[in-house]
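Work package 3, deliverable 3.1, input record:
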Amino acid sequence: MSSIEAPRGRALACTEPALIRGPAGLHRGKAPGWWGMVFLIATEAMFFTILLTSYWYLRFRHGPVWPPDGIAKPELFLVSVMTPILLVSSAPMHWAELGIKKGRIWQLRLGLALTFALGGTFLGLQAVEYLTKVKEFTPTTDVYGSLFFAITGFHGFHVFVGLLMNLWLQYYAGKRRFDAEHFLPVEVVTMYWHFVDAVWVFIFATIYLSPHLWP
Amino acid sequence: MATPLALRLSERLEKTWEEPPGLGTWLDSVDHKKIGKHYIYTAFLFFTAGGIEALIMRAQLARPNERLLNPEAYNQLFSMHGITMIFFFVTPMLFGFGNYFVPLMIGARDMAFPRLNAFGYWIFLFAGIFMYSSFLIGRAPDDGWFNYVPIAGARFTPGLNIDYYTLGLAFLGISTTVGSVNFIVTIFKLRAPGMSIARLPLYVWAILATSFAVVFALPSLTIANVMLELDRRAGFNFFEVAKGGDVVLWQHLFWIFGHPDVYIIFLPAVGIVSTIIPAFTRRRIIGYVWLALATMATAIIGFGVWVHHMFAVGLPNLSMAFFSAASMLITIPSGVQIFAWIATIISGRPVFKTPMLFIMGFVFVFVMGGVTGVMFASVPFDQQITDSYFVVAHFHYVLFGGAVFPIFAAIHYWAPKMSGRMLHEGWGKVSFWLIFLGFNLTFFPMHIAGLLGMPRRIYTYHGGLGWDVWNLLSTIGGFVLAAGLLVVVLNFLWSLRAGAPAGSDPWGAPDLEWATSSPPPHYNFLEIPTVRSNTPLWDQPELREMGRRVHDLQRTMAEGHVTIGTTVVDAEPEAILPMPESTFVPVVTAIGVTGIFVGFLTLIYPVIVIGGAIAIGGLQAWVRPKEIVG
């Protein structure tokens, strides 16, 4: 295995004139920035994994009654509205990305605006929920309160950052800084937004649904 | 002699790639070679600090009932010694070598994200200063490097000590994470055409495995620190038993990070060993594929053994049996590596110059540490001996043997490439023997002291317990070791002024970094080569004259500030990647981030706001999309 002979012609075919003479930044594969976002998301996914694992660990170490201290099981109505809103918000984001890859700046701008409206609604409803929750318990009440606010708050912060990036894209879309060949920022923000949506499914299942399943 | 074409092109490349001189080159450089050197020098400063802390502790422990230090000072010293060596010396040192040599070994002109690279260095430096500033107010972290609750909670350690720890490590984590992502993407995308995954140098494999381990392990430490900080400062209850929290959660989260971290430290060192052995035995490494697989296997299995740090906690027997088995399992890839190295050495024609001596020292010391490691994988033995000096002896054999010996091998092996000058061979040998003997004299007696019942982390002890002589030997050994380290420093400084010129390839080594001049030009390679072997310099004679003759004009890319992007598995060219010019943006952004952490430490909120504003401004200047031309 020490020396592996390559098909020589293939290895040299690299110096394709079109590639070398093309404009700098021309790509066939995914850009390094795209890969960078993949691994940033991998490490972010671990943040949520560790938080949710801590939730399960503390929940089962705690004993039979969960939530403890007379806290009611999480109310499901509001979150059942919030969850579809957030999940659906991925669709216009995807549509926006497809649009700019075909050079349609209007499609990018419209998709971004729709996503912003849906994401903003989610965050607004989360604020409404917090206002009712704090009347019942806070992070300092007990470990359940700490977990609830830390995990949903950490996720909410990610949504907030996603909305800021959405506005940022909207601003530069207005200045025509993206087109069919220059869309990397759109691509990576879209990936981030899908991640933030997907991770909510696990938070929803853990924080909201599971207390109803295990009495 | 170089051909006129090569001369003309190298002049043009030099003009494109050089960075303007002055203070700027230090603050605004995005050149991976400069950043790599900054990492190495800074990490060495922290090594010195951690070493001085160790010597003070050894002086305190030289005799029974010594009164040099009070208990609180001793607690701070042993905590900061561990934190410094693990977080601020070994990893950044190995990242420094990675920064300098990964792009050279894969035939690239820089890292994939040069500005992120600079940013990572500044965060590392500022986080180190942040952590060490705790000594100024006499409140350094004092609950050990693994910082168990409840003693690290607000009730038992109300001072700022632990806030420095939690915030400092979360702060440093940014640097380690972005550095690792940068390594992965660089290795995935920037390899020279033809360097398929089966031709990756083993050092690069090791950096890749380490970086993956960081991406998946570090979040656990960061989350644990954030939880602890919320408990301490904001009244959260994660570790507060009276409010339903759980103290063992900290131990799990810490070691879910902590044990992979052992491999994060060890794997790049392994890569150094696999790099140096072929060069000094004059033969290809035996079992290239096995070594690459063992590297990845170690990184993965390393995630499944953390509970062996917790055998004395009182966990269920079933889970301990599982983790005991996993801990024995992980010795298999380590064994594969050791046997491959030994076989290579035996079947080759070894030349025992200084780098190779340090490698031999590594093999000896690391096997010793491995033997005691297998003993700890057995639950009953562990429960008897945990928290004794036997543990201290074990992990110094593993970490000093497994990481510091390879680091010193790397210093002697690679410094000529970085400075263009050789270190003195005779003094190199002197330093090796001082370090090797000093190391064993320091740490071997600790095995015995531990078996005689001496607990770790005690600031003094009574005479007549049978520990006196072993402690005195350890202290003498510590100072011999320090003398050996000093010889290395002096030898290095001497070499910068008076060392023999190294030439491009002083060792006759097989990897690409030796195909360019020493020190390498700003643009690394006059042309990006096509790689057809995993020992390219031994199999492709044309690479030896790469700086002097142009073989393929299109590969010089002298018109722009660019490098070649290739596909992930086969390394077929797919893009010309523009590289950023030098810029102050990374250092400014890092200053902003520092402001945020200082603000959280001192709870002066305007500092957080100002720091955040600077950081966001820096990010904006960094990622702002350029106007589309044409």
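Residues 1-25 of chain A have pLDDT under 50 and may be disordered.
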